[in-house]
Description:
The chain has 391 residues and is α+β, with helices and mostly antiparallel strands. It is 62% helix and 8% strand. A five-stranded mixed β-sheet has the order 2-3-1-4-5, sandwiched between helices.
Amino acid sequence: MQMTRQTLAGQLKITDREITERKTLFGITEQCIETLSDCRRFIHPKIDEIVQKFYERQTSIPEVELLIGDAETLMRLSQAMRGYLLELFEGYYDADYVNKRLRIGKVHKNIGVSPKLYISAIAQLQATLAPYIAAIPEDPSKNLDQKKRLEAVQNIFLFDIHLVFDTYIASMLNEVHISKQQVENYASSLESEVAKRTEELEQMSRQDTLTGLANHHAFHEHLRRCLAEAQRNARAISLIYFDIDRFKEINDSKGHKHGDKILGMVGKLTLSQIRTNDIACRYGGDEFCIILPATTIDEAQIFARRMISHAPQFIDSSVRFSIGIAQTGPKEFFDLDSFVGEADKAMYNAKERGHTNNKCNLSLAPLSAENAATSNNAASHIRLAATDLEP
């Protein structure tokens, strides 16, 4: 339940039973209540005088005077003290009385009255009241004398002090709790920020910043995982390996800045074409690899043709690619290095056969008997460079 929907007594779990136990603990008996009530008719006419004397004593303490601050505040405090003294001798010490005492503690805590100042104020209030209590005539018929009256006043003050200090302690515990929550929230946000930065750093360590593709290190991790999944599920997996023809000449003639721009455009082209499960990587220099899980060599060739057909949207038409494609699985599998080696050889085969071809060069790695049975490419044409791909 929200704090604003509860009384202070409710927040502190001070029940009627608890109030009764506390009254017994501090000697607030029926006789004590009767004694306090009897004092009221003598105190009431002197109430303003008592309040004035009390605050004369209080304002003589520099620390208290600084807390009070001005005449208007002093007037409000005097009115509040007047009401407090009337309630003190009212004779009703129920839940309503307890809540008022708890509010006094909360207000004192909020305005910065330290426990030592509060106890000092209660001691001064008792000292101010003592002569007025002593001046009350004894009443043999009620067995009331000065000693019993002073004892009753002492008991009710102790009862009140205990309640006020409950609010001091509760406020301090709340402050500790709030501070703890703030620290925990800060630690949590810091942990999240560290995790975020760690993830970003990890991502940076696995990503080629120039192209936005996975880097060489990440490529081997991805390919190892994809090969394991392909073997586990008995599925084919294909690897496209390509580079930019005469890239060194481009760098030498137009500068590395222009070469970097081309590499960036190749990255954007590749990312625009891959599917959700495909992984595009910059293998190194001007060499790129695309891992195509659950893909045959024929499907990979269609992918390569589609990618090249979209190349003019990203890259200058003078740029040419040599592309090699290899497949492994679904039953027989290359190891990682052999798989990359097959795609690499197919790419160089395309490059060699494409020296006289001004279009993009495409070559497929040799198929095993298993893969050739499902391929639309005749085995005798597997290593021929393509001549029908548009730049």
